[in-house]
Each structure stands twice: as C-alpha cells, then as structure tokens.
Specification:
This protein has 1015 residues and is mainly β. 11% of the residues lie in helices and 42% in strands. The strands form nine sheets. It has a 22-stranded antiparallel beta barrel. It has a six-stranded mixed sheet with strand order 1-2-7-8-5-6. The protein is elongated and about 105 Å long.
C-alpha cells in the first residue's frame, strides 16, 4: 500500500523544505515533538484545496496554517477563538455575541458571509447547524487538532457549493498512542469570565501497527461577563446624541393614545394643533401621562461573554485488513449549552384594552384617556364626555351600559420578572466510515459514507406574553380578570389570571402577578447530512517530456442529502406574543439532494531545467445536480472549475496563481423560510421628530407608509435602535456565481538566509447574482434619499409599513411590518486584498529565535443589493462601521516572536487592527454623524472614528519533565480598553456595550494557565 505521512507531504509540497515554514501563520517552538509517535506513524495525506493525494503535490493556492503549538500558547478553548484573530477573517457569531447569538459559532472568510465558506474536519464535511447550512465551530474537537488550514478563494471545484470564499480545514492528529490529560483555566483580571477546560485523550496502536484507535473526551465551562461589570459599558450611550439611556421601553409605562397635559390648567390639552405627542409616560406621583420620560438603561443585564458548557467525544479508528486495504472510521459527539442574557421582557408597543374602571388606573390618567381622540385628519374631539367618564369609573361589568374601555399602545418593561434568558442546547453526532487502498503502486482509492444530525433547541425564559398582558389589564378588580379581552388569552374562570398593575413604578408588578404573565417557549432546529463519496487518485502513467514527475489526478463522485426543519411551539409561532422576542419563529421544513462528479489534474510541465526549476499546471472541474424537495422549484445544474499553476525559475522562488469559477446554490433557509416580521437595526427614522412638519414630500411619504396623521411631528426613533423588518425565503432563487483569482509568490532563500520564508498573494473575489437582502440603510435610502412629489406612490416607499398607532417603525410585529428586506438574486459582492506571511527561524546561540507575521490588507469589500439599479449604492465597508457594515479593518496583522530555550519557551504575540471610521454613506443617507464630545460622566467619546488598536499577549511554556508541560498566558497584556462608540451606530449583534466586542477586547487583561500530562 503506497501511503505518505503528513510530514512527508508537507515537506515535499514545500519544494524546497523551508516552504513548510511559510504555511505557518504563527509558530511556536518546543525542544521535542509534541507527539513523536503520531509523527512517526502518520500516513494520512490531507491536502487542503485538492482531492489529489500525492506527497509531491505543489499547490497553486495559498493556505494559511495555524499550528497546535500556537493554539496552546494562545490558550484557545474553542475553534471560533482560533479563527477570530486571523487577518482576513471578519468576526462572525461567537462567544462575544449576545443579542443575536443562536447558540452556535461560525467563521466568515473575507467578510462575504459565514454561509459562503465551508468548515471541514480532516477534509470532509460534517453535519451543519441550522437552516443556513453552516458548521458550528463549537463542535470541533480542539484537543486532537494538529493544525488549522484556511484556503482563500473559490474552492467549490474541490469541495462543492458554499466554498465561494474558501474553506477552513481542521486536521486532527493521526495514530495517537498513549494517554494525554490537559487541564486549563482562564480568568479576567476583574475576577470574572472564568473558563475551565479539560481533555482526556487515549490512543493505541495494535497488531504490529496495522491498526490504531483513539478516543478523546472533553468538558468545558465558561461563566458570563456582564456589561454592568465594566465601567465603559455600565450605561447605554446613544451613538448620535452622546446621552445616557437606552430603550424607550422601561418603567413606568409609556402609552400612545394619551393627550398631552396643558401646562396652564394641568388638564389634558384641548388645543387641536397639539398632536398625540407620540408616547407619553406615567408619572406615578401624579397619575398623569407626561410628555417627558427617562430612557431605560438595559446594558447592565447584557453580557460580553456568553455562558458555555460542553461535553464532547471524538474517536477515530483504522485497521489494515489486508496489504494495501484499510478500513477506517471517525465518530463525533457533542452536547453543549450556550446562554444569552438580555434585559427584561415586557410589552414593546403592543396594543392593550383598558377598562376605565381598572382598579390600578389613576384618576388623572382616566381623565386623559377620556379626553383624548384624534381624527383621521389630525382633528381633536373628546373620546368620552365627563359624565360618561365618571360613570365608567365605577362600571365593573362589560354588561353595564356605563362600561367603557380604551385601546392604547403600551410600552412597559417587566423589570420585576428578571432578564430574558435563551438557553440553546445543541446535540450533534456525525459518523464516517470508509475503506481506502491501492489499485496499483501509484494509484489509490477512497470510498466513504457519513451521516450526521444536529439539533439545536432554544428555550426562552422570563418572557412575558402579550396576550396575557392584554387579559391581565382587562380587569375591574384586583383579584380576577374579565373574559373577552380583545387580543387576550380570554381566561374564563380558572386560568389563574391575576390583574396586573402597569401604572405604577418598578415593583408594581408583584410576585403574585408574575406567574400568569410568563411562560417558557421552545424552538428546535434539526439538520441532517448524509454523504457518500468515492475518489480515485494518484499518478497516471504519463509524463510530460520536460518533466520528471508524472501527472497526478483525482476523479470521483459524491452524493449529499441535506434536510433541515424548525419546529416551534405556539408561543414562538405567534407574532408579537413573546415580549421582545423580535418576531415569530414559524415551522419550516426543507431539503435537497446533490449529485456530483469531479476531476482534478496536476500536470508538471517542466522540471529541473534552466529557468524552470518547476512549471506546474493545476486544473479541475465539478458538475453538480441539485434536486430540491419542492415540486414547483426548478432543479439546479451547476458547473464549477479552476485552472492555475506555479512557476519556480529557481528553487528559492516560485510564482503561483489560480482562477476559480464557483457556484453556490441557495440553502434551505433561503429557499423555504416563510415571510415573517422580526427586528433589524436602525437608529434614525426619517419620519421621526419634527422633520415631516416642514417638508411636505416627507410628510406625504410618512402618511403613505401608514403613519396616522395625528402622529406627524411626534414619531419616535426606533426603540433601542431596532426597527421591525419583514423578509423570508424565496423558492424562485437561483444559484449565485463567483469568479475569483489569486496571484502571488513564495520566497525561501535557503542558500543564503536559511530558515526564512515569505509569501505574498493577491486575491480577488466577485460574486454575481448574489443571494442577498438590502441592508436597512439601503431600504431607507431607496425611499428617502431623493424625495419628490411622486415619492408617496413609489413602491420603494410604500413597501415600508409603519405602526398604525404610533407611526413608528417598531412595535407589535403582528401590525407593524416595518422595512421590507427580501431575498433576491440581485446582489453583487466584491472584495480584493493582499495576504502576506513571513516566517524566520534560526539558532542564535543561547536560544532558538522564531519570528512570524501574518498580515492582510483589504483593498475593497463592496456590496450592492440590487445590481439592476443604476442609482443603487455600491457600498464599500472596508475601514468602516455602521448598521450596514460590520467592522472590517483595511490592514490587520498578527506577529509572534518566540525564544525557545532547553526547557522553556517565551512568546510574545502582537495583534494589530487598523483605524476605522463611521461609514460615510451611513452619514449621507439619514443617520447623520456620530457624536463627538464629552459624555454626562465627563469622559470623551468619538463615535465617528476608531484609532488603530494594538494588543499584546505574552505566553510562557515550561517543559517541566518529558511528560509534563505547563503554559501561562497573559492576554491583552497592557489591559487596552475597547473603543467607545455607543450602542446605536452598528448592528445589535456586533455593536453592544458601547463598543464592538467581537472585534475589540471588552474583557480586559486575562490570565490563562494550562497543564498537560502525557504518558
């Protein structure tokens, strides 16, 4: 059986040997191999970016490698942490994301979307998490990872759809023999955020090394870090006014439908020119609804680090059943919990009907309810006469002719209930088994099958139910609720309804009232992936006349079947029922099958000739047929291909390049998700405030979008910078296409600077017909950027639908669709940049010096949601942040310097993030400039600019004995505080706690220790 070790493959692929250094993103040095047995026995060939299993393969695409040694020095606990700091990787959902975290972690290569790259385990797919089809990085067994390889650019030819921006391949150790126990603990200088990790790995070779079996078991647990535990995030700060506050939904209650108070008489105003005044808040001392109110500071209960608990098992086995024939298997199991914690639930703009005889209704507010009414044209008429109002105050039964009620919009945060907690429990298993062997001395085969399932169950706790709030306020005494509340749960006689006091200060909702108002809700997402794959690869008996090596090839076929389903209980499915949940979670089911054929060639054209140390051509093609589980949906046939090569005029210098045409078919969520209303980010609504009162075209547009006439001039900005948005899947979607190319060189001057390697590669990726949706800024700009007399009938304007009671863009999702953000094939994505990797290692006498740099310079990262619109915005997000752009620095690098002594390594890592600023188009299209100035606490904030940031991490590794290793790491050595830009200038997912915690360190200086014992 002709097999080659991973080390042999890497050395040969380097051509010459020093090139293997160029593949390492950062490098640590120990005095002996971390696993000598594995290095000696490893015979599995894994070449990220190719199906050809040939140890002499010289690839034409750049691969960035992070070693296990570097992971150990950084004390990374989960795979998402490994990838987060790699230049060119844009932060995605991870442990630093709270509001918007679905209980999983993902990677986003080049900022093109986490669903446009593939995560592999030993070169193979594993079951995805969720309907989008992404792999949850929390499930990767980090204890057995030998290295992490990331390949930039289209890799769809090798791996199929989704590899538009590249792949990340986690390569595990093979033929492990012995016992290895590792324990680690990490804690911040503030004494919080404790993170414990333990892993036990047991492996053995047997039957004269014909077989091996390895089992790894791990457990992890991390504690939350609350934003209230950091001085810069205790108070929520508006990015545009610099004021402290947060959400307009707080305590006491706020109502829309209450007449302003006349300052001269203290009674409801009778001036017909005074409009509704938007939302009014109860003054508990007087019982009146007043036009001024305090915002609610929701920051302290939000978190910077999500609590995480995981138990995982990973095993591998192989056995050579006959000469040249080997069977193998791999099994992965993981069960994890991720908790997100956000401020309390309540009624966020939901309508309620209140009897005028409600026992908790203050008399002053009853008079306001009675006196207020605004007609369609904004005219004022009393709702009830004083006599009717007085009679209604004592009418306790709906059958009483004097009974009266009012319907108003309620904003009241139930602080008494406690924070909203979403517990995400994910269970995944994924099994693979196969057989591989020799067909001839130079050609082998590999046939395998795999099946995996992932189930993510979300349990939402401490959410109030809007229907029960409606029932509990529809009461005329303090002990029982009336039946028949409009939109309520209609309790009847035995539901346990306790009337609720929404008119008092914090604490007015008592412990006796809370049980009826709340209930847990659950939503489960289950996905499965079945695979069958067969590959024949090796060397063909053909050699080009000027080359010494034969042509290498791979041909094969693949079948994959995906299914995904979301199942929700009735509470989760009802729009607006869970207070502050952001929209309904409908039942969804979908699936598709993929049949594929693939071929790759690696052709040495010239070797060992003057001016041509090597000249190699690399090419490949994949033909795919997608069969979607929907009879009315067209089936997809796609073709992806690549062509590239490398030229080394001398052994020390090589030029390489690759062109790839990739195709990504729509995923299950994009196809099958029904249209629903949820939340998006929008800090500034053009219809808010006084602007519509002086601009006739703007006023007409606001009215055409559903704003009541009486609200013009007093519409509020979206609560907490979040507006409603409506969107969903589209069965008419077609595959998107991508063209990418990389051009670069490799310099390894072994003859005069041994130990040095340098790679520089330019990449360019363009996705056309991209499956995208408009950003909130796009939706607003499409309507409001150039208003005219005809704008009120423009579909780009009328498709935006406002709250029918308040005129705002937020409120009950059952009545307020908000912005319309639909999926289509009209998008275009483009990005290009430069990757640089430099490594140097030499003996300096008293120690071994290691120096490495990985840098990325992104020239552009552009997005256009509608390529057919000549006036549409071609948005470039590099170097900018806004509600449309997550932070993506133009220049970013990671540099590590390591001194290796006999029994001790000392290593310093330097992480650099380039300066960034508020997106100019965000300013030009409505949001306006961020605040620059002194905050109420005396500190200074510049929301328009973020300076360049540098972080330093210091690590020391001690080889106490041959079998015992101890590592100490200080992250963020100089305790650099994150930039403060407020909490409304970006998306809620990434802009939280007045900063961007996924991009910058919000936890501060942290200490980590780990110990590893090997037998």
């Amino acid at each position: 059986m002709k097999k080659f070790s991973t080390q042999t493959m890497l050395r040969a692929a380097a051509a010459p040997a020093a090139l293997s250094l160029a593949l390492l993103s950062t490098q640590a040095f120990a005095q002996e191999p971390q696993n000598a047995e594995a290095e000696a026995g490893d015979e599995t060939i894994i070449v990220t970016g190719s199906l050809i299993r040939n140890p002499n393969l010289v690839q034409s695409t750049p691969v960035n490698v992070t070693s296990a040694e570097d992971i150990a020095l950084r004390q990374n606990n989960v795979a998402e942490e490994v990838l987060r700091d790699i230049p060119g990787v844009v932060p995605s959902i991870g442990s630093a994301v709270n509001n918007g975290n679905g209980g999983a972690s993902y990677v986003d290569l080049r900022g093109l979307g986490s669903f446009r790259n593939i995560v592999l385990l030993d070169g193979n797919r594993i079951a995805p998490s969720g309907l989008v089809g992404r792999v949850d990085l929390n499930n990767i067994p980090l204890a057995l990872v030998e290295r992490v390889e990331s390949l930039t650019g289209g890799a769809s030819t090798t791996y199929g759809a989704d590899a538009v921006s590249g792949v990340v391949n986690f390569v595990t150790r093979k033929d492990f023999a012995g016992v290895e126990l590792s324990l680690g603990n990490k804690i911040t200088e503030q004494g919080d955020g404790n993170y414990f990790r333990s892993d036990l790995t047991i492996g053995a070779n047997f039957d004269d090394n014909r077989g091996n079996a390895t089992l790894s078991i791990g457990y992890q647990n991390s504690d939350p870090v609350y934003q209230g535990q950091r001085d810069f995030s205790i108070n929520n700060i508006s990015s545009f006014s610099g004021t402290f506050g947060g959400s307009g939904t707080g305590v006491p209650s706020r109502f829309s439908g209450t007449r302003p108070i006349d300052t001269a008489t203290g009674l409801p105003s009778t001036d017909p020119t005074v409009a509704n005044g938007g939302v009014r808040q109860v003054n508990p001392a007087t019982g009146q609804a007043v036009p001024t109110f305090a915002l609610y500071n929701f920051n302290p209960l939000n978190i910077f680090q999500t609590p995480f608990r995981r138990f995982n098992v990973f095993s591998t086995a192989r056995y050579e059943v006959a000469d040249g024939i080997e069977v193998y298997s791999r099994a992965l199991f993981s069960k994890q919990h991720v908790d997100t914690i956000i401020a309390e639930s309540g009624s966020f703009g939901g309508s309620v009907t209140i009897p005028l005889s409600n026992p908790y209704l203050p008399a002053a507010m009853r008079n306001q309810f009675c006196a207020f009414n605004v007609g369609a044209a904004g005219t004022y008429t009393p709702r009830f006469t004083p006599a009717e109002c007085a009679a209604a105050a004592t009418a306790t039964s709906p059958t009483d002719p004097a009974f009266r009620s009012v319907t108003v919009t309620l904003n009241r945060r139930a602080v008494e209930v406690g924070p909203r907690i979403s517990d995400f429990q994910t269970t995944i298993f994924d099994y693979r088994a196969g057989i591989r062997g020799d067909i001839t001395d130079s050609i082998g085969f590999d046939v395998s099958g795999a099946y995996g399932e992932s189930e993510n169950t979300q349990t939402q706790q401490n959410y109030t139910l809007q229907s029960r709030i409606r029932t509990a306020v529809y009461a005329t005494n303090t002990t029982s609720c009336l039946a028949g509340a409009p939109g309520g749960a209609d309790p009847g006689a035995s539901t346990g309804c306790v009337p609720v006091n929404i008119f008092g200060p914090a604490g007015s909702i008592t412990s006796a009232m809370i049980p009826y108002l709340t209930a847990n809700a659950t939503t489960s997402n289950r996905t499965s992936l079945a695979q069958v794959r067969g590959i024949i690869s090796g060397e063909a008996p053909v050699t080009i006349p000027f080359a010494s090596d034969a042509i290498s090839f791979a041909v094969g076929g693949e079948f994959r079947k995906y299914t995904a389903a979301q199942a929700s209980d009735s509470l989760s499915q009802t729009a607006g029922e869970l207070g502050g949940a952001g929209g309904a979670a409908p039942n969804i089911y979908g699936g598709y099958e993929v049949y594929e054929g693939v071929a790759e060639l690696n052709i040495p054209l010239v070797q060992d000739k003057p001016g041509f140390d090597s000249l190699v051509l690399e090419t490949g093609i994949r033909q795919s047929h997608y069969k979607v589980d929907a009879p009315t949906t067209p089936q997809f046939d796609t073709t992806t291909y690549k062509v590239g090569g490398s030229w080394a005029p001398v052994a020390d210098f090589k030029v390489r390049g690759m062109y790839a045409h990739s195709v990504r078919a729509p995923n299950i969520f994009e196809l099958f998700s029904p249209v629903t209303t949820g939340l998006t980010n929008l800090a500034v609504d053009p219809c808010a405030g006084a602007a519509p009162t002086t601009n006739a075209n703007l006023r007409a547009v606001c009215l055409a979008q559903g704003a009541p006439a009486g609200t013009i001039g007093s519409i509020n900005q979206p609560t907490a910078g979040q507006a409603n948005a409506t969107g969903g899947g589209n069965l008419a979607l077609k595959p998107e296409t991508s063209d990418s190319y990389t051009v670069g060189f490799v310099f390894t001057p072994t003859s005069f600077i041994p130990g040095l390697s340098l790679t520089v590669d330019y990449y360019n990726i363009k996705v056309e017909g991209a499956i995208t949706q408009p950003t909130p800024g796009d939706a607003i700009a499409s309507c409001f950027a150039n208003l005219s007399a005809s704008s009120a009938s423009d579909p780009a304007c009328t498709i935006i639908r406002r709250n029918p009671a308040t005129g705002a863009l937020d409120g009950d999702p059952a009545t307020t669709p908000g912005l319309f953000l639909s999926l289509s094939n009209q998008g275009v994505l483009k990005t290009d940049g430069l990757d640089v990797m430099l490594n140097y290692k030499r003996d300096i006498g008293f120690a071994t010096l290691g120096f490495s740099v990985v840098g990325n310079y992104t020239f552009s990262s552009k997005f256009k949601s509608n390529a057919a619109d000549p006036a549409g915005l071609d948005r470039d997000c590099v170097g900018y942040y806004s509600i449309n752009c997550n932070p993506q620095p133009k220049f970013q690098w990671t540099q590590r310097t390591t001194l290796g002594f006999k029994m001790f390594d000392l290593s310093l890592q330097w992480r650099h993030i380039d300066k960034m600023q508020q997106e100019p188009d965000d300013i030009a299209n409505g949001n306006g400039p961020g605040f620059i100035g002194t905050l109420p606490d005396g500190s200074f904030m510049d929301a328009q600019h973020i300076k360049a940031y540098d972080y330093f991490d210091l690590a020391a590794r001690f080889d106490v004995t041959r079998n015992f290793e101890f590592v100490v790491t200080v992250n963020n050595l100089f305790d650099r505080k994150p930039p403060i830009v407020g909490s409304t200038i970006g998306t809620t997912t990434y802009n939280s706690g007045n900063t961007y915690p996924s991009t910058y360190d919000a936890l501060g200086r942290a200490f980590a220790v780990s110990a590893k014992v090997k037998f």
